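Name: LegC family aminotransferase
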Amino acid sequence: MAFQETIKFIQDKFKSKDFIPLHAPVFIGNERKYVMDTLDSTFVSSVGAYVDLAEKIMAEISQTKKAVAVVNGTSGLQIALQLAGVNTGDEVITQALTFVATANAIRYNGAEPIFLDVDYETMGLSPKAVSEFLDEFGEKRESGTFNKKTGKKISACVPMHTFGFPVHLDELIKVCSAWKIPVVEDAAESLGSFYNGQHTGSFGQLGVFSFNGNKIVTSGGGGMIVTNIEDFGKLGKHLTTTAKVPHAYEFYHDQLGYNFRMPNLNAALICAQLEQLDRFLINKRKLADAYSEFFKTQSLAFRQELENTKANYWLMCLELENLEERNAFLKVTNEANTMTRPIWQLMYRLPMYQDCFRDDQKNAEYLEERIVNIPSSVIL
Ligand SMILES: *Cc1c(COP(=O)(O)O)cnc(C)c1O
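Structure predicted for LegC family aminotransferase:
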C-alpha cells in the first residue's frame, strides 16, 4: 500500500511503533537544575535572574542588541507591532499562509491584515508580491506610506519564516525600506535559522520568537522580542511590565501597559534549553539529511533549505502531488500512529479574516493543498 515504506522509515528512525508526535520537547540538560533553583529560591514569578539571563542569551544568539522576554510569541508580536508604530485603523502587510497568531497580533492592535502571496520556494512572504502591491496601492506621504484606495496607513510588514525556512530577506527589506515601512519578523518558528549568515529576526526593526511547547526549544510557554533599536528594547520591557515606573514602594504606571513578562520559572527552563540549541540543530539536520536521502527513493519531494540560507528544520515537510494525495497521506500516516499534519488553512478561510484584502495567492493556495509536516523531533 502507498506510504507504507514511509511509515516504516519513520518508525525505524524514531525506534517506535507507538504514537510518534510531530515535535516533542526533550529535556536532557540543566532543565531540572535551573527550574528547581527557582523553586528553592521562591523566585518563580515576576522577579528573578533567569529572565535577565534568557534575554542576554537570546540577544547573543539572534545577533541583536536587546531582547525582551514575554509570556508567549503572540503577545510578543502584539507588542512588537505596537513598538513599530502600528495603530488602530492602520493596515499591516503579511502572508495568508501562516499560523493564526500572526494575523491575530495585527488585529489586537486594531489594524487590518493585508494578505499577500508567498514565494513557492520559501513558503514565506514574497518580496515581489509586496512590491507589486505597493506599486499599485502605495502612496508616500510625509507621515508614511498610505493605501491610496482605502486611505489607511500601511504601518508595518510582517513576514513569517515558515517552519524555519527564511524568506528572501534582502529583497523584502529593500522593498520595505524604499517605502519606509517597518518590518517586524515573525520568527516564531525560525530560532537557529540564518539568511546569508545572519540570524532571522535580526533583519527587521523587530523580530519575535516563540518558546511554545512544540517549538525547537521551549519554556513551557514564552516568547522573546529582539531588536537592534535600543529604545524599542527599553520601551518593550516597560510595556510588557505594566508600564510601571521603578520606585522602592510607590505604584505609578505612566501608560497603558501589559502583564506580558515571562515568569522566572519559564525563563529557567528556556535558559537550560538554549544551552542545548546547537546540539538540537545538528541533530535535526541529521534527520533532515536522512529524510532527504530516503524520500529520493520514494519520489517524494522533501523540502530543503535554499542557497544562502540555513534552516533550523523545525518542522520538516513534504510536498505531495495534489490534494487527493495529500489527504491519502494524512489518513494513512495518522492511522498508523505516525503524526502528520497539513500546513495551515489560509487566513482568509477563517471567519474573522474572510473580508480582508488579498492578492491572487497563487503560491499560497498551491502549497496549502500539498504541504504536510512529518515527525521532526530531536532524536537523541
Ligand atoms: C508558534 C507561533 C506563534 C505564536 O507563538 P505562541 O508562543 O504560541 O504564542 C506565532 N507565529 C507563528 C508563525 C508561530 O508558529
